């Protein structure tokens, strides 16, 4: 186990900056997931930690030692890639034990450690097979075994489940979490998949455009997103976001005429300002279209998810999702009413995209950053 300290780390390709000064402290034994869209810099950051990319500025320390000038093999990291990178002419046992063979470990010791790793990953029946004779999930476990056998201080996972089907991804997520619990090594996992991120992470690092937008537990990031980007990126369905103005009466006005009343203590400091109102789909409910205070909309389509469902509504072209656990008697084209939970409203500055803190929630100790 080893803590990792990332201090003002930058990366440029020629004159094009791609990482803009990342600061991050990772505790020993922590499981960190770096989440973000394609091109946000998450894999580049991981590769800089591994030593596969040179950093353009800043400092990376692993277990208290600055590693900027160290070769990848000297950093105590093991990396699991998206494409597995197995040797096709070697058996499973040979692939797992290759690093030990290169290091000059005696054959008897290699065999013992290969057996231990194979047992931990349920690969014992496949040790004499070659990668071509394995399923995608089995090949992924071999790649993990090859990393495990080195007994690294740090595990680095670069979107390792992207090539697997949905059912196998679920199984492998559970396997990776059990592996982390058993080994206790510091782990950093890169993904663009929100479900992977939310289920695996001790803490999430949400990246966008080469910067860190938010760091926090999955619960903190989901319930208290600190920027418009995080609010719209994390969550399925994404948070409902409506841009408008707080008028002199303290009412949020969007789409020129639609209105949502806000609590006085939140609206008073924001009169005349452009803001973005955000609300999770589960913080709204369906009511009669003529119910007092209801927002009227047209049902676009209903997304059935088994134990739950999402009604996707249309406000004259503006989308709004409502998540429900009960059955609904609504069909596409129906006029519906939507009641919202005013205590669950998030407000963001329209110009910066940063959260405008709720004074009531702040005084109650809510986490906003």
TrEMBL record:
Domain ABC transporter: 4-234
Single Gene Ontology BP annotation: carbohydrate transport
Localisation: Cell inner membrane
Keyword Repeat in annotation: no
Swiss-Prot/TrEMBL keywords: ATP-binding, Cell inner membrane, Cell membrane, Membrane, Nucleotide-binding, Transport
Topological type in the membrane: Peripheral membrane protein
GO MF terms, alphabetically ordered: ABC-type transporter activity; ATP binding; ATP hydrolysis activity
Superkingdom classification of source: Bacteria
Listed name of the protein: sn-glycerol-3-phosphate ABC transporter ATP-binding protein UgpC
Taxonomic lineage: Bacteria, Pseudomonadati, Pseudomonadota, Alphaproteobacteria, Hyphomicrobiales
């Amino acid at each position: 186990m080893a803590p990792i300290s990332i201090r003002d780390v930058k990366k440029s390709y020629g004159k094009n900056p791609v990482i803009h000064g990342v600061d991050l402290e990772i505790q020993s034994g922590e499981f960190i997931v770096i989440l973000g869209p394609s091109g946000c810099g998450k894999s580049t950051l991981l590769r800089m930690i591994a030593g596969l990319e040179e950093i353009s500025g800043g400092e990376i320390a692993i277990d208290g030692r600055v590693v900027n000038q160290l070769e990848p093999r000297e950093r105590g990291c093991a990396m699991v890639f998206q494409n597995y990178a197995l040797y096709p002419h070697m058996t499973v046992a040979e692939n797992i034990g290759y690093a030990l063979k290169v290091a000059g470990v005696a054959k008897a010791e290699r065999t013992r450690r290969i057996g231990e790793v194979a047992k931990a990953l349920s690969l014992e029946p496949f040790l004499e097979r070659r990668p071509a004779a394995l399923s995608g999930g089995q090949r992924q476990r071999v790649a993990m075994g090859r990393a495990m056998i080195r007994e690294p201080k740090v595990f680095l996972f670069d979107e390792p489940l992207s090539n697997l089907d949905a059912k196998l991804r679920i199984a492998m997520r559970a396997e990776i979490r059990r592996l982390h619990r058993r080994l206790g090594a510091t782990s950093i996992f890169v993904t663009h998949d929100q479900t992977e991120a939310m289920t695996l992470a001790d803490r999430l690092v949400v990246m966008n455009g080469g910067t860190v937008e938010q760091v926090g537990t999955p619960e903190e990031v989901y319930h208290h997103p600190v920027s418009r980007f995080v609010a719209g990126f994390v969550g399925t369905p994404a948070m409902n976001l409506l841009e408008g103005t707080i008028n002199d009466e303290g009412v949020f006005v969007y789409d020129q005429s639609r209105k949502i009343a806000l609590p006085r203590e939140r609206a008073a400091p924001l009169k005349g300002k452009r803001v973005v109102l955000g609300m999770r789909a589960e913080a709204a409910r369906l009511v009669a279209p003529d119910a007092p205070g209801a927002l009227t909309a047209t049902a676009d389509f209903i997304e059935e998810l088994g134990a739950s469902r999402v009604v996707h509504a249309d406000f004259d072209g503006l989308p709004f999702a409502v998540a429900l656990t009960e059955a609904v008697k609504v069909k596409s084209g129906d006029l519906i009413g939507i009641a919202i939970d005013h205590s669950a409203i998030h407000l963001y500055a329209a110009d910066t995209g940063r959260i405008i803190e709720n004074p009531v929630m702040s005084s109650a100790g809510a986490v906003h950053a």
